[in-house]
Specification:
The complex is a heterodimer of chains A (282) and B (421).
Chain A: E1 6-9, H1 21-25, H2 27-41, H3 50-70, H4 81-108, H5 110-115, H6 122-149, H7 156-183, H8 186-201, H9 208-218, H10 220-226, H11 230-243, H12 250-274, H13 278-281
Helix pairs in contact in A: 2-6, 3-4, 4-6, 4-7, 4-8, 4-11, 7-11, 7-12, 9-10, 11-12
Chain B: E1 8-20, H1 29-37, E2 44-57, E3 62-67, H2 73-80, E4 88-94, E5 97-100, H3 113-123, H4 128-142, H5 157-169, E6 175-179, H6 187-202, E7 206-210, H7 214-220, E8 223-228, E9 231-237, H8 238-251, E10 255-257, E11 266-273, E12 280-282, E13 287-295, E14 303-310, E15 315-322, E16 333-341, E17 349-358, E18 366-377
Helix pairs in contact in B: 3-4, 3-5, 4-5
Classes of the chains: A mainly alpha (282), B alpha/beta (421).
Chain lengths: 282, 421
């Protein structure tokens, strides 16, 4: 029973609690903070939830104008470039929004950190709920496109796996950034640049087959170098699961998945190990 | 677990903060790297916010905690609430811990009262089922039923605070830490809060109760500890503790000092120079107030309000200094602001200073009350029947002219004309 539980307070106590147990105990807070974000996100906006859909549509529109028309990047046969870019953009938005919001979560809630105790990983984790909701809406919009242009219908296991890997990756890096941002706000300035770099380094605006063709024309090594980006295969796999076209490379996908898991666990551990000092420094 | 084991067992808790002199804390990676390369040449001083605190609280006991601002009370409560970690020592808490350190933290202005109840309950660690079970009680206690579905940004400050306290007051816990939350709302609500606290105490819960309100401390506790400069200097019957606390105020230096904060500006010293020295200020004579502010970085839109408060808590006079009027705190470092009242017009009585220091970013950085007590006396002037004390706020300069009106007819009062209805 609770009444007999003893809390032992001592220096470095939280160093030893790298686990998930106390986070689970506070799941009610996790849910409430997540719901708060959802409720607040589009308050006092004219278009409200429409923004959820407008963001990837507009981004895909820009990509279409620049890469589809000007640079004339090819999309798979029978698929309009816009649809192709939209699918990539949905995957990329899932990653970048998760990363941005988890990273900014500590600084954004400094008042809570200084005044109330709760397991700190709650703050980054709670931001994921609103991202997932946006993601679900964007995915729903992708369904009619799949019906019109998809080859084999939706490959749900690959779709789920690639989404999960994107979230794990983003959250893991987000944990590191959130922990660092408590002491060094610099990382929050670095963030948009990393996100932008990632967008171009991953097959969002172009297909992985195009990247392979162009890079191997110079040297096989360049493509291998390119594929060091663990997200490359995952973003491509995400789109492949929807359109049924593209370059799905299972080996690289496993690499991406393992990377995501490792980053998540390592990020979480780093966050937990520095957590105790947050209230002193933030 | 035997029932005789103390609910709270604190053993030598200490907390040290490092203060770097003349240098800001590194807030960017480059700065940290360049500091690292300088082989730690800057001097650091250790500041013990809490030193060797040791005490126990039996189950069902209510312990009062008193001490002046900056004496270490809040640091200890933050350690016990697990917000910060101690540097040394350890503590054992038996049972579920609830802490009301700052009522209303985590309230979101855009959310409705109902939504905030659930969010705040979750923040305080209450499971959803408990909030649901207590929902009716919380709403009833707060008295804001009508506005449950209104965003709390439309609430009056009284309603806001009442709702916040109500959520916190319905926490289900075995050990409750209460920091000065009774100082909220109007008098009627404060009585209600005190009643609620009595109820909590009656239920056999263990309570650590911090307050500057001595009558509340006396009403709720038998035993109290007194903090002074980070140490516990008294542990015993509440009457003795209050005596110690008040006498400390007398022997204490005539001012206020606090350590600088690493990342935000802070008032580090307040001092007054009375016309007669010590605590005695003559009416109509100059009074000087010195405020020092340690700013780790420039403070945009800094503002300082200096209010003179009489014994009844009435604000009698205010002076202010705004960055927007005349630049202050525009660089990192220690700033000294001196406010001189050339001839203080306060009426006789006992007064204290209330200092509010804020900036455009945070609003409030420091709100310090009951500082630098002093007494205004009428020196060299007498009045038949004596001077009122703590009665009016000030005796202003006034110029009288008085004469005799010799011809009453010339200055006759106008006659009231009656008009028929």
């Amino acid at each position: 029973m609770d009444a007999t539980s003893v809390t032992h307070i001592r220096p470095g106590a939280r160093w030893r609690s790298l686990g998930f147990g106390d986070v689970w105990e506070y799941r009610n807070l996790l849910l409430n903070l997540g719901l708060r974000d959802v409720k607040l996100r589009y308050k006092q906006t004219l278009l409200g939830v429409a923004w959820v859909v407008l963001q990837p549509v507009l981004s895909a529109g820009i990509l279409t104008a620049v890469f589809g028309f000007i640079a004339a990047v090819p999309s798979p046969s029978g698929v309009p470039y816009f649809v192709f870019a939209y699918m990539g953009q949905v995957a990329w938005t899932l990653f970048s929004l998760t990363l941005t919001r988890t990273s900014g979560s500590m600084v954004g809630s400094a008042a809570l950190v200084m005044k109330i105790y709760f397991p700190r990983p709650i703050l980054p984790l709670a931001t994921i709920l609103s991202v997932l909701l946006d993601f679900a809406i964007c995915l729903a919009l992708a369904v009619p496109m799949v019906v019109l242009y998809g080859k084999n219908g939706i490959n749900i296991p690959v779709l789920a796996a690639s989404s999960l890997v994107l979230i794990l990756c983003a959250t893991g890096i987000g944990f590191v950034f959130a922990a660092l941002s408590v002491r060094f706000r610099d990382v929050l300035f670095l963030l948009p640049i990393i996100v932008q770099l990632g967008l171009y380094a991953s097959p969002v605006a172009y297909g992985l087959d195009v990247a392979r063709a162009s890079l191997t024309r110079h040297s096989e090594r360049y493509f291998n170098l390119y594929m060091l980006n663990p997200l490359a295969s995952v973003v491509e796999a995400f789109r492949w699961s929807l359109l049924g076209q593209g370059l799905f490379l299972p080996g690289y996908f496993v690499y991406g998945a393992v990377f995501g898991l490792v980053v998540f666990v390592a990020g979480f551990a780093l966050f937990r190990s520095s957590e105790a000092k947050f209230a002193d420094v933030i | 677990m035997s029932s005789s084991a103390p609910a709270v067992d604190v053993r030598g808790l200490s907390k040290v903060y490092r203060i770097k002199h003349n240098t800001r804390r590194a807030t960017s990676v480059v700065e940290a790297l360049s500091r690292g390369l300088r082989f730690r040449r800057q001097t650091t001083e250790q500041f013990w916010a809490l030193k060797d605190a040791t005490f126990t609280v039996a189950q069902g006991e209510v312990l009062g905690i008193i001490g002046h601002n900056g004496a270490g009370k809040s640091t200890m409560l933050k350690i016990l609430s697990r917000i910060v970690e101690p540097t040394n020592g350890e503590a054992f808490l038996r049972g579920r811990l609830g802490s009301l350190l700052e009522v209303g933290t985590g309230f979101h202005p855009e959310l409705t009262g109902r939504e905030n109840i659930f969010l705040n309950g979750a923040l305080l660690g209450m499971p959803r089922s408990l909030v649901q079970r207590q929902f009716a009680n919380i709403v009833e206690f707060s008295g804001v039923e009508q506005f449950l579905d209104t965003p709390v940004k439309r609430y009056s400050s009284g309603m806001y605070v009442r709702l916040a306290f109500s959520v916190a007051a319905h926490l289900d816990c075995d050990v409750l830490i209460v920091d000065e939350v009774l100082a909220v709302g109007d008098e009627a609500f404060q009585r209600k809060c005190l009643g609620k606290m009595n109820e909590v105490v009656g239920q056999g819960r263990t309570v650590l109760f911090v307050s500057h309100n001595m009558s509340a401390i006396t009403a709720l506790t038998q035993r109290s500890i007194v903090f002074e400069r980070g140490r516990i200097v008294f542990d015993g019957p509440t009457e003795g503790a209050i005596e110690r606390y008040l006498s400390e105020g007398d022997s204490e230096e005539h001012g206020y000092t606090a350590p600088p904060r690493p990342t935000e500006p802070a008032v580090t010293r307040v001092e007054i120079q009375t016309s007669q020295g010590g605590r005695v200020q003559a009416h109509g004579k100059p009074l000087e107030v010195t405020v020092e502010i340690a700013a780790p970085a420039p403070v945009p839109g800094a503002r300082l309000h200096l209010t003179l408060v009489n014994r009844l808590g009435r604000y009698c006079s205010q002076a202010w200094l705004y960055d927007s009027d005349s630049p202050i705190c525009q660089s990192a470092g220690l700033h000294r602001l001196v406010c001189r009242f050339p001839s203080l017009r306060l009426a006789p009585g006992q007064y204290t200073l209330r200092i509010h220091f804020g900036d455009r970013l945070a609003g409030t950085r420091d709100l310090l009350e009951r500082l630098c007590p002093f007494e205004v006396v009428m020196l060299g002037r007498t009045r038949e029947g004596g001077w009122p004390v703590n009665d009016v706020a000030c005796f202003d300069d006034a110029e009288w002219s008085a004469g005799v009106i010799t011809d009453p007819a010339e200055h006759a009062l106008p006659r009231v004309r009656r008009t028929p209805v």
